[in-house]
Amino acid sequence: MRIGIGLPNQVRDVHAPVLPAWARRAEEAGFAALGTTGRIAYPGVMDTVALAAAAGATTTISLLSQVLVATTWPRTLLAKEAASIDAVSGGRLTLGIGVGIREDDFVVPGHGPRDRGVRMDRDLETYRSIWAGDPVPGSPNPAVPAGGRQVPLLFGGTTPAAYRRMASSSDGYIAGSVPAAMASGAFDAARAAWQAAGRPGQPRLVALNYFALGDPERGRANIADYYAATGEYQDLVVGNVHTDAASLLDSIRRFEALGVDELILGPGTDDLDEVSRLADIVL
Prior knowledge:
Keywords: Flavoprotein, FMN, Monooxygenase, Oxidoreductase
Protein name: LLM class flavin-dependent oxidoreductase
Strand order of the largest sheet: 1-2-3-5-6-7-8-9
Number of domains: 1
CATH class: Alpha Beta
Domain Luciferase-like: 19-245
Organism: Streptomyces rhizosphaericola
Radius of gyration: 18 Å
Pfam families: Bac_luciferase
Shape: globular
């Protein structure tokens, strides 16, 4: 199982200049991937911007959005944005997406929370078309340079529609930031949907957890603040923040036993030393 680390772009009032340095240090430490968590109605750095900054600061580490709220974006714009980040990084981006749950993130007129699942199904067709180099609707020009690729997609969510989209239109599934025992059912559902769709092999499975080593109290408080509007899910996430080596290593063992391909450990603070603290334990 590969171990990645999240960028602190979701930390309230993050010191934005830390992001490129964080990415470089994560790559130097040997983490397999850098992840982003993002929303619009929150004082952090946009996930696409964080990914672009990480792409420019590194050369080999994989990049992953976990997950980007795709339905808040005009579809052609997001397709170009993702393709651009992927190209700048040399083909290191995986776009993890979902339909979103917080109404205040839907700030673009015509892209509200209503019918967002229907929009997602339509948007996926546009992403593929744009990435294939087809012309932008209404224009003779494509949106992306020649020689690009279909950006790998992963889906988050636990509804039947989310599993259906994952199996029919993506490379795999991202579970929520919960303990392995709770994520197990979601991974089983993803595998079942994959098989039902007649897909060969297995879906790529990505797990998410949080950590706070240098200042556990502040880390938990930041994570609680980010998930404040999610009800019981907030308690699950905050209660599963890893603050010591024993907890982290136990979580890794449990996710490995589930057959997960990748575990991304997200930070609770933007303290740059958290990268080395985590690396000393898990790598």
